[in-house]
Amino acid sequence: MQDNQKMMHIALSKDQVGKYAFLPGSPERVPRIAAFLRDSEKVAQNREHTSYRGYIGDTPVMVVSTGMGGPSTAICLEELVKLGVTTFIRIGTCASTSALVERGDIVIPTGAVRMEGTSSHYLPLEYPSVPDYSLVKKIEEAAIAQGFRYNTGVTITKDSFYTQTEPETRPIGYELINKWTAYEKGGATSTSMEEALLFIAATSLGVRAASALISATNYKSYDQDNILSPLEIEKRVIITGVEAMRLVIEEDKRKSR
Ligand SMILES: O=P(O)(O)O[C@H]1O[C@H](CO)[C@@H](O)[C@H]1O
Ligand SMILES: O=c1cc[nH]c(=O)[nH]1
């Protein structure tokens, strides 16, 4: 592959990226993350993938939006891996599925329920979806250093937003509700739409991935204003994610000396 050959979906080439990337879902979050990097600039835009590059110290770091859900996240991850990126931190939002998680808490998944379809294209369902442990530790260290409330545990990844928020209105609601009740009784902390795929695909491609999420809701609260307006709390998870990446890069440099 030529160094300037553009990938089909993210429209980035090898000569534009380094080894580290943030993966928000929302394209609007990309410049808000990039603002925390040095000398950041927009480098590409195609479909749901908006891409900025900036620096932590002298190390280039990408911010690329995945879009919503497993399929577009898998494409984005695969193309970045083909370009040489090896370390991914998703900076995202989630909803609380536990009384232990309040709106505005940092949520650090240590595993994901695979209530989605894309990850099965990589590994069979009995294979657990877990993030990279070294990245999880750095995200936790960053949240502690900032003094943010945070939670670690299993997150639920689903393919469909409204069948989760309004399951009783859907023909298969009986099954959705029973499964969800079991996940919550099992201790699941949160839900979003990308983690299970991200961890499984990264594991199978031999790269590192983990997530720093912000809970946009309190448990059993689907106040649309809260879900759609998490801007004032989003900053917490961006600071946590960027600080975690800084710690990862510093450790990688120490190890390569
Ligand atoms: O974390 P962000 O990018 O906000 O994504 C979350 O928001 C979307 C649903 O509103 C899903 O993609 C979910 O995972
Ligand atoms: O309610 C929410 C908020 C973020 N992500 C989700 O999947 N659901």
TrEMBL record:
- List, alphabetically, the GO terms of the cellular component aspect: cytosol
Q: Name one GO molecular function term.
A: uridine phosphorylase activity
Q: Which CDD domains match?
A: UP_EcUdp-like
Q: What are the protein's UniProt keywords?
A: Glycosyltransferase, Transferase
GO biological process entries: nucleoside catabolic process
SUPFAM superfamilies tied to this protein: Purine and uridine phosphorylases
**Mind telling me what this protein is named?**
Uridine phosphorylase
According to its UniProt record, this protein's enzyme class is transferase
For this chain, the family text in UniProt reads:
Belongs to the PNP/UDP phosphorylase family.
Q: Does the keyword Glycosyltransferase apply?
A: yes
- EC nos: 2.4.2.3
Note the superkingdom of the native organism: Bacteria
Q: Which InterPro entries match?
A: Nucleoside_phosphorylase_CS, Nucleoside_phosphorylase_d, Nucleoside_phosphorylase_sf
Indicate whether Transport appears among the record's keywords: no
Instruction: Name a Pfam family for this protein.
Output: PNP_UDP_1
